[in-house]
Write a structure and sequence with these properties.
The chain has helices at residues 23-26, 43-65, 81-96, 113-122, 133-147, 177-180, 202-212, 232-239, and strands at residues 2-8, 103-107, 125-130, 160-162, 165-171, 187-193, 213-224. With 243 residues, the protein is of the alpha/beta class.
Length: 243
Amino acid sequence: MNALISPNSVANPIMNEQQDPSFAELNLAKQYPTPPLESITSFAALKGRIRHHYELASEYYYSLWGEHLHHGYFLDPADTKERAQTRLVELLLDRARLEKGSNVLDVGCGMGGTSRYLAKHHGCNVTGVTISGKQVEMAVRLTMDEAGVDVTTNVAGDPIKLASGSARFLELDAEELGQHFPEPGTFDCVWISEAMSHLPDKKLFFQNAARLLTTNGKLVIADWFKAENLTVEQFEADIKPIE
């Protein structure tokens, strides 16, 4: 198993109040109090809240983010968020050297943007999984629309053909991958983008991923990681507000 981890930068902000006093006026977070943390009694309760969050908010996220529920890789000030989001997928494809036509498990697939991209532009056969039934519904609808197929003809979990690849979507807790896919070596690639924070038992996820991958399979991860040796100023500016 080959692991590719692509960390997004959380240190070195573009600007701060010392560099640009007008930044304080733009920092809307300071205008609102931080709500107190709510205690979680169990992993099951935490997952229930995550599921409920996406059941309620996914349509709203789609209106803001579009089909890709992840950040973008910006190289030019003129880049649109849509171009930057697809460029991040392309960057991961390039670094992973994933062969065309691979069988891919897209963990935390959201509305299926990455799954569709891998299917349509890289000929992959993708299984996207998300804990939210609402997201599965949206992913199927968007994929059927792109394929030009009547959504009422889809049977839950069936692959939807896109160019030379396909995409299907399942409502599934990412920590239950081992039970749902009992055969080892099922996938050439396990892909997870900005979803690790939703997995309480990360060790179990990696165990399942290792078992599900082929001998030379790829584990592709893009997420936010706290850099080492941050200064106090960097921690206060970039880490503390989101911890």
